[in-house]
Amino acid sequence: MSKLLIVGSVAFDAIETPFGKTDKILGGAAPYIALSASNFNVSSAIVSVVGEDFPLDYLTMLERKNIDISAIEIVKGGKTFFWRGRYHNDLNSRDTLETQLNVLADFSPVVPDTHKDSEIIMLGNLHPLVQLSVIEQLTTTPKLIVLDTMNFWMDNTLDDLLKVIAKVDVITINDEEARQLSGEYSLVKAARVIEKMGPKYVVIKKGEHGALLFHEEQIFFAPALPLEEVFDPTGAGDTFAGGFSGYLAKTNDISFENMKKAVIHGSNLASFCVEKFGTERMENLDRNEVLKRLQQFKKLTQFEIELF
């Protein structure tokens, strides 16, 4: 088993979908990643920052999941990062109504000594210079660095983003972002262009249409599980990343064949995330539920065919 270091925002979200709305609830990339990875009982730590307004109950909940929160800085007198958004009827597009960076604006990450030798690094969506700072603090070369990013950084800090991309092993982005970063419409061509930027593996997330894994000439596709009800897609991508990195940390195997399984585990856990608002579903997820749904994934994709 490998140590997993998670870097990402810990935030408040206020979410509105066609199925309801919430006031401030737990959000940010790091909780979704960590809660997802906790299903594999790995040794994990979160590096992040919150304000003095952040409820201790949330931190206690993360600790109960055996997640090391000692590197979550609490800024006295500060306010926690806050995002408010509204999803359209298709749940694939959304409008950002309000963003308050607050303590995240001046965040300077400090990796705890106990996790400077982590084998698996999961860099959640943050400013590229923050992600780069974490890499530079590591005392040993990790077995795998996974990077999640988004189009905002492509639009505003592309040079810094490219520096980080050059240092990672895996990048996870959605199809729109892959096309923007590569300048290619074909996702196959896009992945090849992105691989030349540094990563050995490219994961392209397609939301309700599954995920693609690319490595050199090899391609793997994992479908998303068709669900009867989807309430809130917030955090689904981070949950996928947590399942992906958590499984790799658990198995201590970063081969392409094992990454294919990691993509399935990520997709499986993400399918739970969207069933409730915020992190609620992931906080109360039962292992038997996870295993049962994995069987559904297997039945969905497994078939025999006679070749003529």
Fold and architecture overview:
This protein is α/β, with parallel strands linked by helices and 308 residues long. It has a single domain (4-301), classed as 3-Layer(aba) Sandwich (UDP-N-acetylmuramoyl-L-alanine:D-glutamate ligase). 36% of the residues lie in helices and 23% in strands. The protein has helices spanning 29-37, 56-64, 128-137, 151-156, 158-165, 175-182, 187-195, 236-251, 256-273, 280-283, 287-301; strands spanning 4-7, 11-17, 20-21, 25-27, 44-51, 67-68, 72-75, 82-87, 94-100, 120-123, 144-148, 170-174, 201-205, 211-215, 218-222. Strand 5 (44-51), helix 2 and strand 6 form a beta-alpha-beta unit. The longest helix has 18 residues, at 256-273. The protein is globular. The chain starts with a strand and ends in a 7-residue tail after the last helix.
Q: Kindly state the mean pLDDT as a whole number? A: 93
Q: In which range does the helix fraction lie? A: 25-40%
The residue ranges in which pLDDT falls below 50 over 5 or more consecutive positions are: none
Number of domains: 1
N-to-C CA distance: 44 Å
H and E string: EEEEHEHEEEEEHEHHEHHEEEHHHH
Sheet/helix structural class: alpha/beta
CATH architecture: 3-Layer(aba) Sandwich
Q: How would a crystallographer describe the biggest sheet? A: 10 strands, mixed
Shape: globular
DSSP strand content: 15-25%
- The CATH class: Alpha Beta
| Cα-atom radius of gyration | 18 Å
Number of helices: 11
- Oligomeric state of shown chains: single chain
